[in-house]
Write a structure and sequence with these properties.
single chain; alpha+beta; Alpha-Beta Plaits; 2 helices; about 30% helix; globular
């Protein structure tokens, strides 16, 4: 099970709440969290093998969330 890690602009509760339903209901996402105390607002996703980092970046961009891949 891959763990995908992203730097994001999820810097408020409102922005975070806007993507909760999308990430919660996505069939390839098992678990996710955002560390809003980190300067990079790190989004960590445990996923199935059928979703890639670029898939997540595109998905978030549809909701005006900027993200980029971070290394483990």
């Amino acid at each position: 099970m891959p763990i995908l890690i992203f730097k994001t602009d999820l810097d408020s509760v409102q922005r975070l709440n806007s993507i909760c339903p999308i990430l919660d209901l996505h069939p390839s996402i098992i678990n996710w969290s955002v560390d809003q105390e980190d300067v990079d607002n790190v989004l960590r996703i445990e996923a199935l093998n059928d979703i890639s980092e670029s898939d997540i970046i595109v998905l978030l961009a549809q909701f005006n969330i900027i993200s980029e891949t971070l290394e483990d």
